Amino acid sequence: MADVRKELARVLEDACDEVDRRLGAFLANPDDVETVHKLRISIRTLRSLLTFVSPLLKRRRHRLLQDDLRSVVVETSRLREYDVLLRQLRELDVPCAELDERVVCLRELERNHVVDVMRGRHTRRALRRVRRGVGRVPWRDRVREEGVARADVRALFRELVRVVDEGSATADRADADAVHTLRKRAKRARYVAERFGSLLGEGAAAEAARMKGVQDELGDICDARVNVMMAREFPAEGLSAEARAALEELVARNQALVDAFVTGVRPVC
C-alpha cells in the first residue's frame, strides 16, 4: 500500500502558506473588498481540508486547530457582510446615495477593527499555532502505524459528496441553518476536490465544478437572508424618505429571492 500522508501534509502546508499570503495582502490594502474576501476563502479552505482529513487526526488536536482558525475568520464576517450589502445597494434601480454613504461609514469603522485584530497578538499567536500544527500533522496512532492509502482518501471524498447530494435532495429550504450547513459542506467538497485532486483521480475537477454550482446557488440565498436581516436592523433614524425607500427595496428584492428558493417558483420580473 502506498502511503499518501506526505501528499496530504503538503497540501495542508500549501493552504497554510496561502492564509499567510492573503493576510498580508489584506493588511496591505484593506479597502479592497477582494482582499478580505480572499483571506476568508483561504481560511475556510484550510478549515475544510482539515475537516476532511479529521477522521485521520487526533480529535483534540484537530479541534484546537479549528478553534484557532475560526477565532480569526469570525472577526472578518461583518466586514464581508457590509461589502455584500454595498454591492447590492449599488445595483438598485432607486436612488440610494445617502444610504450608500451611511454603509460606507459603517464599513470603515469595521475595517479599522478588523485591521487591528489581524495585526494583533491574538491573530499572530493563533496562526503560529496553526502553522506548528500543520507542520507536524497530528495523525492518529493507528494512522502513524498503518499509513493512509489513496483508496482511503477517495472513500472519504465519496462520503462527503454523498452527504451533499443527499442534503440537496432532502434539506428543508425554509430552514436557514440547514441551508447554511449544506452550503458549507458543498464548499468543503469543492475545496477538497480542487486541492486533493491528484489523489482523487480524473473526476475531481468535474466534481469541484459541480459543487461550486451548489455552493454558488446556496451562497446567494444565504447572502439574501443576511441582507434582509441587516436592512431590517439598519439604524434608520435620521434617514430621508428616499433612503428608507431604498432599504425597503433591498428587503423586497432579497426576500423575493429567498421566497423563490423556498417555493421553487421563480419570481416574475
UniProtKB/TrEMBL annotation:
Residues 1-266 form the CHAD domain. InterPro entries: CHAD_dom (IPR007899), CHAD_dom_sf (IPR038186). Signal peptide: none annotated. This is CHAD domain-containing protein. It comes from Thermophilibacter gallinarum. The lineage of its organism: Bacteria, Bacillati, Actinomycetota, Coriobacteriia, Coriobacteriales.
